[in-house]
Structure formats: C-alpha cells, structure tokens
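Re: the multi-chain job from yesterday

Posting the exact lines I submitted so nobody has to dig through the queue logs.
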Amino acid sequence: AQSVTQLDSQVPVFEEAPVELRCNYSSSVSVYLFWYVQYPNQGLQLLLKYLSGSTLVKGINGFEAEFNKSQTSFHLRKPSVHISDTAEYFCAVSRGFGNEKLTFGTGTRLTIIP
Amino acid sequence: ETGVTQSPTHLIKTRGQQVTLRCSSQSGHNTVSWYQQALGQGPQFIFQYYREEENGRGNFPPRFSGLQFPNYSSELNVNALELDDSALYLCASSGTGIKGYTFGSGTRLTVV
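And the result, structure tokens for all chains:
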C-alpha cells in the first residue's frame, strides 16, 4: 500500500517570496507522483506529475517539483508566489503502472500575504 | 474537449435517505473514479470503473455503489445516508495510456 505525508498543514508566505511545500511518500513498488491544487469551492486541478525520467518536473503556473527516490520525497516549489496562488495543495501517489487509484496527503493550505 | 462534469453541485439530504450523484467523463476517457473529500481532509478513494466494470474499491461500506454506462458516464449511489457522509464527492476520469486523472468540480453533499 502507498501513503503520503504532507508535513505542513498551513504555509503562510509573503507575495513574491519563494515557497516549498513538502511531500513524502511510502511505497514498496514504483510509483507515479502528482501535485494537485484546489481553489475554494472547486475540484482538483493537476499542477504536475512525475512518471519517469528527469527528476525535475515543471508544471503549470510556474510550479516545479523534484522527485528524490532516496529520500522518498516530491517537494513542490515556486520561486515567486502571487496572491492567486492562495489555495489548498495536495500531493498524491499511485502505483507506477496503469490507471491505479490515487492516494492523497491531507493537504497544505498556502496563504499568500500581501 | 469537454472536461469532467458533475451534477448536482450541491445537495441536502436527510439521514436515512438515498442519493445518486452523476458524472460525465472527459471525452475519450474510459475510466472513472470516485473520491470522498471530508472537510479539511484529502480525497479518499471510493471505487473505480473501467469499461462498465468495478475495477478497484477503497475502504467504503457496500451502501456505496456505482455504475458506469456505455458512454463512460457514471453514477455514485449512497443508501441509508449517515451524517458522516457529508462531504465533497469528486469524480475523476482517465483513459488508456493516460497517466493521471481529470477531476470534476464535485458535488457537495450535506446530510442533516
């Protein structure tokens, strides 16, 4: 079975500052990794995904994440945040083949301070 | 291309009642999954359908059931509603060779 730990439930950041949202996973098999964003009263939007290959993955809205197999981490980063980045961010993992179910972390609420 | 559409957007039901939630998957997608997201929590996997057959189930009781139709749209049915069933229900679709899911905006179910 897979599990995901998002170490920070809330992260306040000043506008235009960099941010890192942390995600660690546990799995006995190879995995696919995902980051989703959820704006208030909306569904989930895919930010980026790691399937294989380059460990640095670039996504939408200027976000990127780095897969670190030895540390079983997939941290999300953005060099300069904007007010519009205020949202809930979820890290998710699935087994590394087919269309397996997603196992989500509990989420990190990113709040941008003007 | 159309995305994933869920209906209704909001619903209020009384404890003990039954509810049906609907989902139209993205064009070309043949796999549909349902997730329950309680307030302040991450989504929890309920079950998945592939070509009209259940293809995996999470830790939910049998009163949670589903269907997938030939056009790959789907329904989630919940019988004997309990207060703890109050949550956002998310539908997600995917297709052969596609890694990852497209999510709908969800149905907010309130059980009173």
